[in-house]
Amino acid sequence: MRVRSVLRLTAATAVMFGFVLYANAASEPAAPATNPAKPEAKQAAPGNTQEKALAAPVAGGPEEIVARVDGAPISRKDLDEAIRKAVEMYRQLAAAGQAPPGFDPNSPPTDEQKRKVLEGLVNFKVINTLAAKADIKVPDAEIDERIKMVKEKQGIKTDEELAKLLQQHNMSIEQLRAQLKEDLTRQHFGEATTKDLAVSDQEIETAYNKMKAEGGMTLKDDSLDVATILVRVNGKDDQVWNEAKKKIAAIRERVTKGKEDFVKVAKEVSEDPNLKQNGGVYPYVLRTSAPFGPDFGAAAFLVPAGEVSEPFKTGAGWHIVKVVEKHAPGPLPLENAFVKENIKNRLLAAKSKEKMDKVLADAKAGMNIEILLPPSLPAIPMAAPGAPATPAAPGEPKKDAAPNALLTPGST
Questions:
Q1: Within 214-291, where are the H helices?
Q2: Is the pTM of this model over 0.70?
Q3: What gap in Å lies between CA 188 and CA 184, rounded to an integer?
Q4: Of 130, 157, 312, which Cα lies nearest the Cα of 231?
Q5: Residues 91-104: pLDDT tens digits?
Q6: Rounded to whole angstroms, what are the CA distances from 381 to 65, 93, 108, 278?
Q7: Sequence-ordered strand ranges (E) for 102-183
């Protein structure tokens, strides 16, 4: 059974907290630098950060301490696991055709990339401290809802089944709940810290004009607005896939012979993780940059406007789509609701990162942070691409979850 990482972070959250393995600078508008210049000598990063470049690991094993934040340790085991999960996340993006430039799913992470992940773990420790001071609470009901989402994604119904699945990855339900609580605490702290940020129409127009001047607001290929319904399938069991095919065929009957509204049915039955955000409709889908990968794009472009496809499958499961509208190549108008919302969300993400960078820098200035990594880091045993991962802890989907490469300079 193929499952995703319990520490899978949305791109926006990962960038906000510095948990970055492969940078994709072109995908976000440039934000003003907020980090102070790096001091010399002992202070290698904002605050009382000290990097001790050791000739060899401190202890050489999983319990080796690689960093301390006000005395709280981060072990080699913590770092190795975080790196594995970061690589899993990017492999999933690569499988969907959305990997950032420079990511090779078959190559191990470099020392520099490992240090970036450690920086993210340090930031997590700092955020945990700030969240505790801010008295951020996560109700049990919210964790219960996330556990329910995990079960739904894995196609299981009972705690016993979940416990058996988690056991394969040396994790218990209690550990999953604790991880979810920690992740949600950080998420809520970030939301509380950035909730008053706003983007004006003038800022949106300025960003639009800048991207247009750089060639990022013109479609050079045909695109589609596509409504989709997904019946998710995990693993390779033929019986499971056949049952899912029967289910999607029955759903298709509802929207074709039964004449039910496609989008309403999608909101009722689709298992698309972005459904809550986009209502089941992906605008401006390109053949080569489609949700769920190139197989989805190839199938969608065979469907005439206004019609519903036959069932087809991707790595995510069985789909049907309805082509809402077809777009010829040409400029993207700012008046288009998707274009405007997409730019707004990107600018908000940049502002959120800027504010969180400052919050982190200010907090670190009053903390004792020690980085204890050796100059060269040992290799980490990595699962081969496609190997099982730890069950997913669902997070909020990106607000610009639809393919947005077309909004990026040089990507059209």
A1: 238-255, 262-269, 275-278
A2: no
A3: 6
A4: 312
A5: 877 776 666 777 77
A6: 19, 21, 9, 38
A7: none
